[in-house]
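Sequence only, no structure available. Ideas?
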Amino acid sequence: MIRAVILLGGPSRKASYGTYEQASPLFPVSGIEIIGHLINAIQKLPNLKDFVLMGYYDKKCFQHFQEKYQKLYGKNIHYIQEQSEMGTAGGLAQNIEELFDEIEDLLVVHSDICCDLQAQKFYDYHKMKSGQCSMMTIRVSKEESTRYGCLIKDCNTDQLIHHAEKPEQYISNLVNCGVYFFNQSFKTTILNVKAKKEANLSEELQDQPYIKYIKRSTDLDKSYLSLENDVLKWIEKDKVFVYEHKGFWQSIKSTSDLLNSNKLLLQYYGQNPFLFNCADFEINYDGVLIHKSAKIHPSAKLGSNVVIGAGCDIGEGVRIKNSILLDGVEIKNFSFIQNSIICYNTIIGYWCRVEGDVQFLGPCVIVDNELFLRNVICLQNCRVSESKDGGCLM
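Reply:
I predicted one. Tokens follow.
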């Protein structure tokens, strides 16, 4: 049996995409929550026991999500709330006995990714190799590679040779996707790493009491563990195998990453509409996803890569390209929207132009008529009464 764990992290302005009212993993991309796409892919595993969501958000944030997907797929979704930021492995170490109860393998997935996860294919690879850990990886451009954990593998055996987390210089274009399979022997490894860190920290503080003034708070927290920096380097290299994913993958750290993810998912579901599991939306021409309750004027032109949420009202002559409109957005006549994320219940006036590299308009924003916004971030509950080129409106 398999248990799937999704690592959620916690509240952070950096990763909140400007909403502040919603946990980042629940932000809708292509009509579905970010982690909804992951659960949709993982639930296809025939020997999946249940899901565990783990993070330091308040558990109430995910209550509706749990109920919705439990009903949809018939699998229990538990939530384990961390009391503080514990890193990518701290929560795993603290709850490792519970997580491995009645199962053989643990699937661990970071929540801030978008990909066409082929869970069964990855699991078959993990069982074939019989290693303690199997890591999913992908090839990226040389320029992008230093943003991620870079890996070097043995081309004959797929065993991990070297791992460097966000190196300063180019090492390899094979990067960590943030998706892992662990077997039962991982329990011993992570508990040993946790005990080793606690012992080293206690000894260090005793011998050098001043160290607490020059180290980061996470380095001084015994419960904080990094899966990439603390745990993986202690697993024997010949027990870690590198699985190379051949589909698409996108890390989601910013608003531009959200738009890229939206584009990738719309293309994927456009080619495989039977995989899109949300009856409230219809995938139309040229990668356009429209909620059935939205009102679209016949003269409006949408696409490519556009999502129109529930209750949206798109007026006459409106043009929208490469954008996400969440529920309740109103775009009045003859406005132009491009490369934008427009949040709940925002109103764009007549003859407006919103464009640039990436625009983000938070919930309940009002943009007056005939304004030009370029490369603007606008936080929630703002009224925009003059044109703006760049900057943040609060």
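Residues 356 and 375 are 5 Å apart (CA to CA).
Hope that gets you unstuck.
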